Amino acid sequence: MSRFVRILPAMLAAALVCASCGNKAAIDGILAQAPSSEVIVKVLDVNIMETIDTVRTGADGKFSFKLDIEKGQPEFVYLFHSDKKIASLLLERGDRVSVEADTLGNWTVSGSEESAKLAQVEKSYNEALRRMQALSDALQAAEPNSSEAQEIKRRMGQEYVSYYRDRVRYVMENSHSLTIIPVFYQRLGDNLPVFGQSTDAIHFSNACDSLMTVYPESKYVKALLGEAKSRNNFMDFEMRLRNATEIGFPDISLPDINARKVALSSLESKVVMVQFWSAAEASQKMFNQDVLKPVYEEFHGRGFEIYQVSLDTDKTMWARVVKEQNMPWISVSDARGSASPYVTLYNIPALPATYIISNGALVDGKVVDAKSLRKLLEGLLK
Question: Over the Cα atoms of the chain, what is R_g?
Answer without folding.
Answer: 29
